[in-house]
Amino acid sequence: MENASSSDTISLLSELIQNKCVNPPGDELKSIKTVQRRLREHGIESRVFESAPNRGNLVARIKGDDGPRLMFGPAHVDVVPVENVDSWEEDPFSGIVKDGYVWGRGALDMLFIVAAQVQAFIELHEEGFHPRGELILLVVSDEETGGTHGVRWMIENHPELVEADYAVTEAGGISIAPGKIAFMIGEKGVARKRISFKGKAGHGSMPYLSDNAVVKLSEAVTRLSRYSPPLTTEYLGHIAEGLGLGFVQRLMLTNPWLLPLTLGRLRSSEPMMARMVHGLSRMTVSPNIVHGGVKVNIIPETAYVDLDIRTLPGQDEDYVISHLRKALGPLADEAAIEDPPGDERGLMSFGSSSPARSEFVDAMEKAVRKEIPGGTLVPLIMPGATDCRFMREQGVEAYGFSLFDPETPPSHLADLAHGSNERVSVRTVELTQRVYRHLAKDFLK
């Protein structure tokens, strides 16, 4: 039974990769229909809602009594584009199983979770599972470009179908130390901003005493890159507690005065950990797109930089603007700070989090321990945004929760998600499917 089930999950994962639901444009209805077909083969009814041409979302449920409502999902089937096919060892949309891995774009983010949740849902249905509440399966489109046609659309158009008390989705389950498994209690917000400067056009042969917008912008970018926003160690405290660090180690991680020293040590020995600790302790500002000038012999009249800003929970629009102005210093009065044009607005969000400890977190930890005896969950905040933010806005306890093969290095996700040679181990798919099944059976029994 377990081997057959695992084979079904892997074949579903491969098919989802092969559907090539690259966003933009998405075309996710291919994978939504794939999931619906799989459910129908096992006598499970589901509803598909088309949110735009060739785009849609699926809902299925196992009804029980009047207890808690647990959601598998929101699980998105869209994937990011492949920039350079030649940098891949295998066809990025082959879904091939090789060397114990399923290869392809979206394998990690997050089609393996879609496949595991669908198969766990099917197994529970076939067992005649009767929950004390309700088990909901929500498979969606459009997470990679903001959720406009996915979770957000479902909440706006069919809110009664996506009401839940708890939700499990991407991403978590990496072993960050022996027996210590990270799960995501929240995520940073996304605040994209454009900072513009004006100067005065003139001849490039006479730059002396000119009013050059690019010169102002270059100083502004330098100031932004060197600025250190206020530190907070709340979320590092969760890590210290979860890892069971000793007094001195805990102090080095959670004391704002000692944290720069800790980062300095980690920078050379564990750069991936340094990046994570840095991101979880402050708002980050990354100047990523710069534009100025129209011709090489004309002093530029306008110039701008687009910033990727990630905020911690509780850091709102006013917080962002005030610290950008502090960073700019004497340039602040000349700077125009505004939202970037176009589709970037759909990606903006506030940071959010769910409780680090709760009855449901205890249930997730119990499910993990059935596969990894003595395993302990360590709460983290994700540096990037997920569909969880929409669920938390509705009052749902939402977590990034899966279970990777304990041999998987923490750098695996950072290196391969959205990267070349994206792949996920068959063992990880199997563990994730089982841990979802344990969670639903135990928490809703």
Describe this structure as you would to a colleague.
By secondary structure, the chain is α+β, with helices and mostly antiparallel strands. The protein has 2 domains: 2-187 and 352-443, Aminopeptidase (3-Layer(aba) Sandwich), CATH 3.40.630; 190-347, 2-Layer Sandwich (Alpha-Beta Plaits), CATH 3.30.70.360. The protein contains 14 helices and 20 strands. The strands form 5 sheets. It has a 6-stranded mixed β-sheet, sandwiched between helices. Strands 10, 11, 13, 15 and 16 form a 5-stranded antiparallel β-sheet that branches. Strands 8, 9, 17 and 18 form a 4-stranded mixed β-sheet that branches. A hairpin with a 2-residue loop joins β4 (97-98) and β5 (101-103). α1 packs across α3 and α6 (234-243) runs antiparallel to α7 (247-254). It is globular and about 80 Å long. The two termini are 22 Å apart. The model has no long low-confidence stretch (mean pLDDT 93).
Features:
445 residues, six-stranded mixed sheet, Aminopeptidase, 22% strand, Alpha-Beta Plaits, 36% helix, five-stranded antiparallel sheet
Biggest β-sheet strands, sense, barrel:
6 strands, mixed
Strand content: 15-25%
CATH homology group of the largest domain: Zn peptidases
Quickly give the CATH architecture of the largest domain. Answer: 3-Layer(aba) Sandwich
Shape: globular
CATH fold type of the largest domain: Aminopeptidase
Cα-to-Cα separation, first versus last residue: 22 Å
The quaternary organization reads as single chain
Structure classification: alpha+beta
**Class of the largest domain in CATH?**
Alpha Beta
Overall number of structural domains: 2
- Low-confidence spans: none
Q: Level of helix content? A: 25-40%
Within the largest sheet, what's the order of strands? 1-2-6-3-7-19
Number of helices: 14
- The whole-number mean of residue pLDDT values reads 93
- What is the number of E strands? 20
